[in-house]
Specification:
766 residues; alpha+beta; six-stranded antiparallel β-sheet; 13 helices; 40 strands; globular
């Protein structure tokens, strides 16, 4: 056995998305870092070994895509990958290589694949000094020393070996009064899954299952119990087993049992399913996973224990370092052995059922303290092993969220090292620094904005050659977004529930509004309309605020007619420029409110899922409306709001789409600045979840070709120039300091949008 000794500032154990983001974040802040990963590829459950594609908040909330390192990775994957993305089974090695490329290309980062942590050593009761690592197939043992350790193993392996306290199974209802908790505590966990992929061969292909495969005979097991065959070509999340096996100690038994069930389910589809066997005749099994994808095992206790009340109530934490927005998604603990699949699937994904209402949550903030191990001072956690209850795990466990936790952990580790503190003992000022670094690195925090004292752009004034205005959108509007416009709703979509359309207010007046409605009842109908102030695009509360204006609209019989409302609303009535109002129409099933033919950036829609509570409508696209005067909600000052995405406002500069490119935006200071770095944030890939974007996708809103120039010596001097861009965050360290009182960003071409768009500009001294 070869023995090696290595030393790093930060040792990250686990190479899933949380681990990759933790390691890259710490390394980018100057720490020496290693990743120890027990498999040959990075990505954990998202890798080509398991093939669960990352989910996150944008599945349920418009403009809620996770940003930061995970966004860089997913944007790169879509730009390079020829494969479409479906929920399970479709991940290929392009994704593996995107992750690998980032890891090996990041300075200060060392990668150990096929390497398993087998021991933890401490030089004091609460302080880890090193981990022992066995390298598979190499007869090598590494002792990796570190100052900070981050457990991203999923199973909490490092924390367990270090003697940290952890929980398993579900808390009982009486402990925290969680609505999703069972009456009695139990050791039951959510199960593990393996996936498969099938291929259309263009001719009939027989299939015969081996004798040891499970044999299915009853259609009710699938069709009456929530096990839906939503795509013939790829395997299903509900091929899941946990109890009676332990998801850690019985992992091999679970793998074998899942393989038996996969083959049996494919046998059912191919040979006996009355609805699918003809459709599946030409399909052949192409791949079956042999690494179970785990949902739950150990949850390590931290400095705060997050329960479902926090995401459901959107608790505001002073140490907020990430956000989530998946619903409280607790799978039936028996999986295939349970009476039904997880509750929302068993209900047919009904959006207004009692279960759906109590499970919908977010976007909500997540505190740093759930990443800080309670029993070790230099151990941070990231991934599904963080300090949360079983019920809260239902929402924080999805991979896009755990990636954010990883980036936060890596950033916190680097701040602790720089300030000479234990990673789990950061003070208030340290946490503020962590938050500001995360924002600078592209992350979003719902309750924080850019307050970085080093960003001199904050003291500048912004101006542009032109700015777009919102006039509205109709069903006939051309979708110029290149696919950003989203999916169409059913041809007929009556107003069975109250519906709302967010409108950004850029002038302190709304004289009139109109909505495109259909009434095929044969008699005149009335619909109550109101304008309601809202705090953000995720302010789903309805009925609790006094409307700014209200009107009963008369809707005569007819199709797609514009019904006008003379609102006459001004600042005197409480209209606030620089925020949102929500145009609401009350329910009337005899009336349809038509969706627009395209999406207006920074605008979304929702419907009342329960009394006083809304949820995103469809994909959150724009409902048809017209507004007068047109709203100036894309002004150049939006690049300096401190928030780089639609949230409390559009937070976006868009040039007038009627004007030709190039378009320019300038910053101007009262005094000369010495600038060494310019950082830009562009819009794109925020509106919908990652799964919704096609192969080779480059977001139309994102500038493709642009340049940066500084006013020096009485003329504009180009200091940076980029062609072929599709990433939404770009950092430009200048080769030498530039002394200037004016800076100009010129967008020469986009990836398809007629408007030039910028979300944020930051400038730092040399």
């Amino acid at each position: 056995m070869k023995m090696e000794q290595e030393a790093y500032d930060v040792v990250v154990c686990g190479g899933g998305l949380a681990g990759v983001c933790a390691a890259v974040a710490a390394a980018r802040q100057g720490a020496s870092v290693c990743i120890i990963q027990d498999r040959p590829v990075l990505g954990g459950n998202s890798s080509s070994e398991i093939r669960v594609t990352p989910h996150g908040a944008a599945q349920f909330h418009a403009y809620a895509r996770e940003t930061g390192i995970i966004s860089e990775l997913l944007i790169e994957e879509r730009a390079l990958n020829h494969e479409p993305i479906l929920e399970n089974g479709w991940t290929n090695s392009v994704w593996d290589m995107v992750l690998y490329n980032m890891a090996v290309s990041t300075p200060n980062l060392t990668l150990h694949l096929n390497s398993t942590v087998t021991g933890v050593h401490k030089h004091a009761e609460r302080h880890i000094s090193s981990v022992t690592v066995r390298v598979a197939g190499a007869e090598t043992q590494i002792t990796a020393e570190g100052q900070v350790f981050i457990d991203c193993t999923g199973d909490g392996v490092v924390a367990d070996l270090a003697g940290c306290e952890w929980r398993w199974g579900s808390e009982g209802r009486e402990e925290f009064s969680e609505p999703h908790a069972p009456l009695a505590a139990s050791g039951d966990t959510m199960g593990s899954s393996i996936h498969f992929k099938a291929k259309d061969m263009g001719r009939p292909v027989p299939f015969e299952a081996p004798d040891w495969a499970v044999r299915y005979e009853d259609p009710a097991f699938f069709y009456d119990q929530g096990r839906h065959f939503y795509d013939l070509a790829a395997g299903y999340w509900w091929i899941e087993i946990g109890i009676p096996w332990n998801t850690i100690y019985n992992n091999e038994q679970i793998r074998h049992e899942l393989t038996r069930h996969v083959l049996g389910i494919w046998d059912w589809i191919k040979n006996r399913d009355p609805l699918l066997k003809e459709k599946a005749a030409n399909y052949a099994l192409d791949w079956i996973g042999q690494v179970p994808g785990k949902r739950e095992s150990r949850r390590v206790l931290g400095r705060y224990f997050m329960t479902e009340h926090d995401p459901a109530g959107r608790t505001v934490f002073p140490d907020e370092i990430a956000f989530g927005g998946w619903f409280i998604d607790l799978h039936s603990t028996g999986g295939l052995l349970a009476p039904t699949a997880e509750p929302s699937a068993a209900e047919g994904y009904a959006e207004t059922s009692e279960y759906a209402i109590k499970s919908y949550c977010g976007p909500y903030g997540i505190p740093l303290r759930i990443l800080m191990a309670k029993d070790a001072d230099n151990l941070l956690l990231a991934g599904r092993n963080v300090s949360v209850s079983h019920a809260a795990l239902g929402t924080v466990r999805v991979m896009a969220t755990t990636a954010l936790l990883g980036q936060a952990a890596g950033t916190a580790a680097s701040v602790a090292l720089r300030r000479g503190r234990e990673a789990c003992s950061l003070e208030e000022a340290d946490i503020r620094e962590v938050q500001q670094i995360l924002l600078r690195e592209g992350c979003f925090l719902p309750n924080c904005r850019n307050e970085d004292p080093g960003d001199v752009a904050r003291s500048a004034r912004a101006r542009a050659g032109s700015s777009a205005r919102v006039h509205g959108v109709g069903p006939e509007s051309r979708d110029y977004t290149g696919g950003f416009g989203g999916t169409r709703l059913p041809e007929k979509e009556p107003l069975t529930h109250r519906r709302g359309q967010w409108i950004a207010v850029g002038t302190e007046e709304i004289r009139s509004l109109a909505v495109c409605l259909s009434n095929e009842s044969g008699t005149e109908q009335t619909v109550e309309a109101s304008l309601v102030p809202v705090d953000s695009i995720w302010d789903y509360g309805c009925g609790g605020k006094q409307p700014l204006a209200r009107q009963r609209l008369a809707v005569p019989p007819g199709r797609m007619q514009w019904v006008a409302w003379e609102a006459g609303l001004t600042a005197a009535e409480g209209l606030r420029s620089g925020g949102y109002v929500r145009l609401e129409l009350a329910a009337n099933p005899q009336v349809e409110w038509h969706k627009g033919g395209t999406v207006i950036p920074g605008h979304t829609s929702a419907y009342e899922m329960a009394p006083s509570t809304m949820r995103r409508y469809g994909d959150g696209g724009t409902l048809s409306f017209r507004i007068d005067p047109p709203q100036a909600c894309y002004e150049p000052s939006n690049v300096l709001t401190g928030i780089a995405r639609p949230y409390d406002y559009t937070n976006l500069w868009r040039s007038d789409p009627a004007g030709p490119l190039p378009q320019r935006l300038e910053l101007e200071w009262e005094t000369e600045q010495c600038i060494g770095t310019v950082e830009l944030a562009f819009p794109g890939q925020l509106f919908r979840e990652y799964h919704r974007y096609p192969p080779f996708y480059r977001d139309p809103q994102c500038p493709r070709d642009y340049s940066i120039a500084a006013w020096t010596g009485g003329l504009w001097t180009t200091v940076a120039s980029v062609t072929g861009n599709y990433q939404t965050r770009r950092r430009h360290p200048l080769s030498e300091a530039v002394k200037t009182d004016k800076l100009r960003v010129t967008v020469h071409a986009t990836n398809g949008d007629p408007s030039a768009c910028i979300a944020e500009i930051r400038c730092y001294r040399f």
